[in-house]
UniProtKB/TrEMBL annotation:
<protein>
    <submittedName>
        <fullName>ATPase</fullName>
    </submittedName>
</protein>
<dbReference type="InterPro" id="IPR038727">
    <property type="entry name" value="NadR/Ttd14_AAA_dom"/>
</dbReference>
<dbReference type="InterPro" id="IPR027417">
    <property type="entry name" value="P-loop_NTPase"/>
</dbReference>
<dbReference type="Pfam" id="PF13521">
    <property type="entry name" value="AAA_28"/>
</dbReference>
<feature type="domain" description="NadR/Ttd14 AAA">
    <location>
        <begin position="6"/>
        <end position="166"/>
    </location>
</feature>
Length: 179
């Protein structure tokens, strides 16, 4: 377990990546979302592990990438903020296949005990070439994650719908209060 590894999760299109970029600009370690990186790689190589082609393969790649991200981040000092992570991919794969993926996660793969969730925020939600699902699917994903993290013993903290700098301040002050 690493108390320095903090997950920013929640609703797709809720501002996670923008928040993580802000935390990186403030000098903290960051890890970009596995899903976006996988889509970029698959498109570049003509692969099919894309959420709209083969969701199962996409999620299994996301799990592998999230594990590799954790290993790569071990040598970083200070806070390391993850734009999604292992639990996001495992929860989605479990919902898709029924496999008990979340139960198989060991304690060696834990993050900080508090996870920050971006709530559904229709005013900023948007689709693009890589995010093809609609708001209803994003809200279902949010509900699934809001249940998955507590089942694994994490405390979830809902991020305020606020400008990105204020959200970053909220994350950092919350972590400072927690020690």
């Amino acid at each position: 377990m690493s108390k320095r590894f903090v997950v920013i999760s929640g609703c797709s299109g809720g501002g996670k990546s923008t928040l993580v970029a802000e935390l990186g600009a403030r000098g903290h370690g960051i890890v970009e979302e596995p899903g976006r990186r996988i889509v970029e790689e698959e498109r570049a190589t003509g692969g099919t592990a894309l959420p709209w082609v083969d969701m199962d393969a996409f999620l299994r790649r996301a799990i592998d990438m999230a594990l590799a991200d954790r290993t790569a981040a071990k040598d970083r000092s200070g806070w390391v903020f993850f734009d999604r992570g292992l639990i996001d991919a495992a929860a989605a794969l479990e919902a898709l296949t029924g496999e008990p993926v979340l139960a198989a996660l060991g304690s060696e793969h834990r993050y900080h005990s508090c996870v920050f969730l971006t709530p559904p925020w229709p005013e900023i939600y948007g689709t693009d070439a890589d995010r093809r699902h609609g708001l209803a699917e994003a809200e279902a994903e949010y509900r699934r994650l809001a249940q998955a993290f507590p089942r694994l013993g994490y405390e979830t903290i809902i991020l305020p719908k606020a400008p990105t700098p204020a959200r970053a301040d909220f994350v950092l002050s919350t972590l400072a209060e927690l020690g």
